[in-house]
Amino acid sequence: MHIRKLLCLIGIVACTSPLSADWRQFRGTTSSGLPDATAKNWDGEQEIAWQTDLPGRGLSSPIIVGDRVFVTCSSGALQQRLHVLCFSTKDGSKIWDRSFWATGRTVCHPKTCVAAPSPASDGERIFAFYSSNDLACLDLDGNMLWFRGLTFDFPNASNSLGMASSALAVAGNVVVMIESDDASFAAGINTYTGETNWKIDRPERANWTSPAVTPDGKQVLFQSSAGVSAVDAVTGEELWNYADGAATQPTLVLVDEVAYVPSNGVTAIRPGKSNTSVPEIVWQASNIRPGVASPIAVGENLFVINSSGVMVAAALKDGERLWQKRLGGKFSASPVMAGGKLVAVNEAGTSVVVDPNDEGNIISKLELDETILSTPSVSADGVYIRSDNHLHKITVK
Amino acid sequence: MSRLRFALLLGVMLSTSVQAADTGELIGKIQSVGKRGAGHDVAAVAIKQLQSVGIEAAIPILNAMDDANPLAFNWLQVAFESVVDSAIKDGSVSAKDLEAFALDRTHHGRSRRVAFDWLVKCDETATERLIPQMLDDPSGPLRREAVARIIDQAKEGSSDEAKLVLWKKALTGAVDKDQVDEIAKALEKLDQPVNLVQHFGLLTEWRVIGPFDNTGMKAFDVAYPPEKELNFDAEYQGKTETVKWENLASKRKDGSFDLAELTAPHKGAIDYAYTEFTSSGDQEVEFRLATANAWKLWVNGKLVFAREEYHRGMQFDQYIVRGEIKKGKNTFLMKVCQNEQEQDWAQRWAFQFRIVDDSGRAVADKGQGPRD
Fold first, then answer.
1. Which among A162, B82, B196, B320 could disulfide-bond with A112, CB atoms 3.0 to 4.6 Å apart, if both were Cys?
2. B89 shares contact with chain A (CB less than 8 Å)
3. Which domain covers residue B349, as residue numbers?
4. pLDDT per position as a tens digit, A312-330
5. What is the C-alpha separation between A150 and A166, in angstroms, rounded?
């Protein structure tokens, strides 16, 4: 084979292969909290591999593309300065930083901030999204590609408590869900130009959940107080609708075609067979109640953390409650999987590693000694946790 | 001059002028971006080309930010940061140019702040040298840093007298609520209370009429008589009885105009509040409001914003609406809607209102209040 063709082929394989340890959006590339690859068993004691300063507040998760980790922040008296920073995953050294000014409202409840929604990536671009509904697209080297101000476009698309729904990159769109007591919509924004590919009306009720993508990447699920709506990722056309209400903070998790929704406790639904516009309810468990943190599914079980900081395990097949374990503290961050274990970080900044196969046995705890409300992100060699002041990379001894 | 040198010089001149023309053209395409993705197809191509021009584009980009709309401003800002970042890494950046821009008070306060931030990355002395001169700077983000320095000095003051001087000095530049609150608290301890209503420019004297019916939150878009005429001698049918205008003034330290307290805690109700403000000239301003209620605001008879949201908290400067006021008398009409929620946290029926300039400083009041 000609060497040039070989290099091209290698390049194509490298670009299209899912084996990279990227973590491209809130709860990972698959919206599941499960990493594509983790090299090390998370059995040992946790330690801080490196820590770096951040210029502003943030509840957004870091995202990882290749050997770079990207973080968003907001700063200034009214949090009107918006930041995107790029660090080396190896040593935390800063590669670049860029900033914008919010064009939408920046008012928030004091507990949250303008950098609450997590950014997303399609592997080539970073989509930084904020509570002000500003959406910036940069390449991996920090060059500007385009910028949208979605509250600038639709001035009543805002919430006086702040917004938190994260961006989602799928099918050539960056999908955003902007729901408040006033103007509410979801949109698929063209990743190349920033133009609107599709826009649909959404319920006019405040909502802080995030869109989730189905494992085949063809559908996006929007969860709100009204229920769950599944839309075509390319066109935004609604495919089915679950109308029995749902939570407005923890977000559903998908396993194959089944969505485990924080609704009436937890309700498992899947697309209907005879009437495809109405989903089938697989089971409903009112004794499993997620708090702010989103549920995660691992193996045969579903795990939720309730508002008292208790982790509850239930069977995916029927919702039977299996065991519970008090982790300690309150949780805003959602649990994720690393090295075969669950990692949950409470609001006091304690990173707790839990064995999902041993009735929630706590393997280790690491005190970060600062408030943590952000969901961790996972790469092949570590877990990234951010606070208002720092980005930490955690490994195990 | 030899022919060869002349030819080379001509070539450089032509190349530079072509590049300059290209840079201006590219910037123009980016400045054309508008709402809802307008102009993106052209701008998305131009922004890539602009970032490849190099450091020569940096100052033209900053200059162009003066006239850019808020969207284009951000496109240009990141393009500036991108070219300067590369120039710092290859040593081609001119700290002198950045400093000159950052100090030029005729430019946009935000682009000056950005220029200053990148100046600091290539000149570590810049903060020490320049920030102390910025206590009265029209750029809010730069002045904030100058205020912060004096606050730090005041905390370390050698005596109460020295501290008092520094806290008072800090107050002259402070406009951000967190800094003003910290300063006011320190001055209070030194028996020098600060009139925050006056400092923030809160409008506390209004003429009020109501309640009109808002049962079931159905009247947000119902135009009751005050939306059709401003006749302060008239009486209208209200929710339960005839209503008429009355003059009221808030005595609250935070300047909030509490309708529930000043009138009655009606539920499912709407009050209208009217006031006037005399401006020394035509100017662009920000109307800053706080309320937990649905509201509409008319300025000089024109609706400038409407928001139908109930009880998601009331925070200082919760809403920022850009607008204009004219020289002389300006009129303001607020529609403040209360719903029927029964929870303890859903009883507020109040608002705060002030007018500030681009830097966040209260626009000087030449006479506020309802007029007879």
1. A162
2. no
3. 200-356
4. 999 999 999 999 999 999 9
5. 14
Dihedral in degrees, nearest 10, Cα atoms B82, B88, B91, B93: 70
Q: Where is pLDDT greater, at B365 or B321?
A: B321
For residues B213 and B331, membership in a common domain is answered with: yes
Chain B, 322-361: which have a CB under 8 Å from a chain A CB? Answer: 360
Domain A23-396 class, CATH top level = mainly beta
**Count of structural domains within chain B:** 3
Based on the fold, state whether residues B215 and B235 are members of the same structural domain. Answer: yes
Residue of A nearest to B37 (CA): A195
- B135 lies in some domain: no
Q: pLDDT tens-digit profile of A102-116?
A: 999 999 999 999 999
| Surface of B (15-74) touching A: CB under 8 A | 33, 35-37, 40-41, 43-44, 47-48, 51, 70-71, 73-74
ipTM for the whole predicted complex goes beyond 0.90 = yes
The tens digit of pLDDT for each residue in B236-257 reads 999 999 999 999 999 999 999 9
The identity of residue A295, as a single letter, is P
* C-alpha–C-alpha distance, residues A276 and A256, integer Å: 16
User: B154 with B185, same domain?
Assistant: yes
Q: Does B208 share its domain with B279? A: yes
Selecting from A144, A152, A180 the residue whose C-beta is nearest the C-beta of B79 gives A144
B68 and B106 belong to one structural domain: yes
* DSSP annotation of A150: H
Pair B228, B351 in one domain: yes
Partner-chain contact B75 A146, CB within 8 Å? yes
Residue that has been written with the tokens 């590339």 in this structure: A29
